[in-house]
Amino acid sequence: MTVAIDVRGEIAIVTVDNPPVNALSQTVRRALLEAAETLDAQASVSAVVLVCAGRTFIAGADVNEFGKPPEPPHLPDLVARIEGAAKPWVAAIHGSAVGGGFEVALGCRFRVAARSASLGLPEVRLGIVPGAGGTVRLPRLAGVETAVDLVTTGLPVNAPKAVEHGLIDAVIDGDLISGAMNFARAALAQPLPPPLRNRAVDCPAESYWEAAEKAVITRAGCEVAPLKALACVRKAAQFDFETAIAFERETFLALRGSAQAAALRHVFFAERAALRPPELAGVMPREIKSAAVIGGGTMGVGIAAALRDAGLPVTLVERDEPALERALANLQAICDGAVKRGRISAEIAAERMAGVTGITDYNPLMDVDLVIEAVFEDLGVKREVFQRLAGACRDDTIFATNTSYLDPERIAEGMSRPDRFLGLHFFSPAQVMKLLEVVPTKATAPDVLATGFALARRLNKIPVRAGICDGFIGNRILKVTRTQAERLLLSGATPAAVDAAMRAFGLPMGPFEAQDLGGLDIAAFQRRAARARGESPVAPIADRLCALKRFGQKSLGGWYDYEPGDRTPRPSETVAEVIAEEARGMPRHDWNEASIADCILWPMVNEGARILSDGTANKATDIDLVEIHGYGFPRWRGGLMYYAQAHGLGKVADALRDLAGKGLAGPPCDLLVEAAEQGCFPGGGNQ
Ligand code: NAI
Fold it and tell me: In what residue span(s) does the 3-hydroxyacyl-CoA dehydrogenase NAD binding domain sit (predicted)?
């Protein structure tokens, strides 16, 4: 039984029980429709309370039905049936009421929710708009502005905020069912409000819509769904219910088959799969109750903040008191920033800081379950840290390194119990960026690896398993990005043109702007190390800029010039001269936005294919996730490898051959050539 009816006096309780998240499968839709019929016919019943079993209210559509033709009864008909029921329905929400789940709740005459519940219409995150009246009923319930916020961002609202905005009628503390029944009895004693379909909307002036459209375009860039969602709310505000519903349905159906929706579905499934790698099925992660971070620099402080966000007590270890003070002040600044942006309250910020212990010796680390090392990128320093840790910690404490480029196998050499050691590569700023590369060594125990994945989940991050090589997955591809960007300069493009092309493609920043932000010195250090290993990285211009001490924004000059206190990049004459000197005698090409993007992206895809063929990544979707969550690759393009597949791998291989002919890239690797014949990468997902 997915839907059960329990009549208690004049109130019927309808319980949906479809684990794990009470998704709106066809069986649930049919059973709910039948429940509405049955209860309308029962004279003794005056009101219906709709609840869900398990950990959540209806958390949306059934993902197993994604991309398949929907079978009746369709969700809009179910919502309309509940709305038109002879007895008022009260949705009693716990967990999440999202997507179709929230639309069912909007069909109910009333909504109450547990304090911890959240509600939302996240459809735009899948490249679609709500398809069962969400954009039409929401403005009739809570006004246009709230509806626009919810449907164009897809962000959830918690129950206390939902009451403030009129999305729900009451927050229930204590037992949800009895609270909802009491609410229903009280509601029956009053004149009933009309169903949402019969309520009027206050339509704002034209200037509101213009501003809303601008705001959506600024936020969503080239994503189509948010603008379409806005158009649906506008229709709902300006036209009658039936016209608006028809428009919403038409928009929903058109978007469902779009390339962006397919790409966003691909990412959605890739993210779900990333959290549960099949090779770790049945392996229990270890319990982590406390953690320590060694090194309170840029990364250590961000990692400590991420651990505190997840509620873990943190010990932060620095090498001396002044460095510790600086680190704690920077951590405080992160908390203050979160308060300022309204993300957390001042009380929570104080609680976060109270959960951090700063120390400069290793003795108090005996009880921690996990230590993450984020000291200088130097093999000797890191090894010494782990030696000291081995003396200070229990012998089952998990040790992790956040190294970017060093070989974790070498860091672990001579370590006692190397089975407890792995790489956990966070991205900067670590409290914000969602990617976590999880890097096992040959000795890492399966439950230690599983703990790395479980930690990512707890920190609300996306874990991707990466093999050991120079730069793991992400930074190895980044090196190619930078090489290509520099090759473009040597063949006639300007930094501003390259950056503009990559922004037009959908990246938040171009490669030169990003280097100026992060600092050119880190990459210069990597190149020195690579040259010492006998490699020959291509960066003649970046090398010259570093020799001129142009390290980026922090030195008021890098690829661009900067004014003090102003991050606006200004084209630099010095850089133009360096480029002209280095490019002397080299063939020049005419570049436009599209050809610049191709010259950068296809060699990145080629490197991705090499990463697949040498086993550094398990599957192409993992590379997609690395690019999206570590480097801002546009989610709506599905990730680097998906984008190439959607473009056509044969065309990508040809373009690479063409670039190779001009000396601007290497030829397609074997795996890419094979994948071009197959039409997809191994593990690349369906188109
Ligand atoms: P950083 O230079 O900002 O911080 C390093 C901190 O470690 C300093 O505060 C220093 O005082 C402290 N430290 C040095 N030796 C220590 C010791 N023996 N005991 C305790 N503390 C010690 O460096 P950053 O950028 O935070 O990088 C740290 C690690 O994270 C490096 O391995 C780096 O490659 C890696 N990483 C850096 C990223 C970035 O974007 N900056 C991104 C991902 C990884």
Answer: 291-466
